[in-house]
Amino acid sequence: MKIKFFGHSTFLIETGSTKLLFDPFISGNPKIEDKNISDILPDYILASHGHSDHIADIEEIAKQSSATLISNYEITSWYGNKGITGHPLNHGGKASFEFGTVKYVNAIHTSALPDGSNGGNPGGFVIWNDEGCFYFAGDTGLTMDMKLIPMTCPKLDFAILPIGDNFTMGYEDAVIAADFIECNKIIGCHYDTFGYIEIDKQAAIKTFADRGKELILIDSGSTIEI
Ligand code: NI
Ligand code: MN
After folding, report:
1. Alpha carbon distance 224, 185 (integer Å)
2. How far is ligand 2, taken at its centre, from the CA of residue 139, in Å?
3. What single DSSP character describes residue 82?
4. pLDDT (tens digit, 9 = 90+) per residue, 157-179?
5. Which ligand sits closest to the CA of 196?
């Protein structure tokens, strides 16, 4: 799978011929120089929760690409009122799409939408197909529920975890999360975007390496392949 990082928690993952865009927050990201989103044309947009640093660019990108939004029921309904096609999920449920299976899993966080509407409860996604299986955690603290992922999903090839602390788990807890989900290849996100979540990146990488795990920090705008 090809994984492009736009900064914060925004990733474009290409699997087969399908493009999946996660938590689009580009035009308002103070750390991104190239804020142009007019050429981003995903097939699906996946939103972990209702906070604006995860959904700010959904409306524009969904309208220009006709992408289908996959999120919880409350968020897909809120965007449905804006004319965007959605597929609603709720915790513990999975659904099959032409690109693979998506399961909506627990996250410990909050999820109010920008206008104060109820954004449901926040979640993460586990996605699998013939190419592999990965976990996009969204914003979450460390939770014992992560232990359910290896019990209920195929073996993870990689996982995208928040490591910036303050609003989510920090990298010290993310190492424990990697143990819970039985995955040694972790891509970090949700760090350095604002003052509250600035981290020592070398210390984070070392914390993972000391536990026999790999922490991958992708430069904003770069693509890797796993
Ligand atoms: Ni959040
Ligand atoms: Mn966030």
Report:
1. 13
2. 6
3. T
4. 999 999 999 999 999 999 999 99
5. 2
